[in-house]
Amino acid sequence: MMQAMRARQQYAAIDTATRTEQANPHRLIEMLYDELLSALRQAGIAVDRGDLALKSSRISRALSILHGLESSLDFNRGGSVAQSLSSAYGYLRQETIAAGRDNDSRRLAAATEAAVGLADAWRQIRP
Q1: How far apart are CA 90 and CA 50, in angstroms?
Q2: pLDDT attached to residue 67
């Protein structure tokens, strides 16, 4: 059982590495949004199930992704759009931290919906 799980994790890592190497910058951000949504949804499920270890790992993953998204912003060229995205990422970060602290899956669901809006907007601006 453990070998099968490790094998799946290794295949997933290889798949992610391959997709990342072949992606353009726009697609990389899209992939980050996809992973953020997955992490937030999984954290909500973990909260509902009382799985504290999974909750912690998924919240940590979501926070890492939010940090990556925010650090990629170019405030010189992005102007007010970059500022708005920075504020949105800050809100998502605060909500994710509070939801994890309080074991609040509804708050995670609200953060997920906000992130869905950002991801959908990003997909609409194909290069």
Answers
A1: 26
A2: 97
- Reported as a single tens digit per residue, the pLDDT across 96-119 is 999 999 999 999 999 999 999 999
Q: Are 66 and 90 in contact (CB under 8 A)?
A: no
Q: Amino acid letter at 112?
A: T
Residue with tokens 């490790």: 6
In 3D space, the residue among 115, 11, 4 whose CA is nearest the CA of residue 61 turns out to be 115
In our burial notation (b when 16+ CB lie closer than 10 A, e otherwise), range 11-45 reads eeeeeeeeeeeeeeeeeebbebbebbbebbbbbbe
Residue 24: what are its φ and ψ, rounded to 5°?
Answer: -85, 170
Angstrom CA distances, 24 to 56, 86, 112, stand at 31, 22, 25
Contact 37, 116 (CB under 8 A): yes
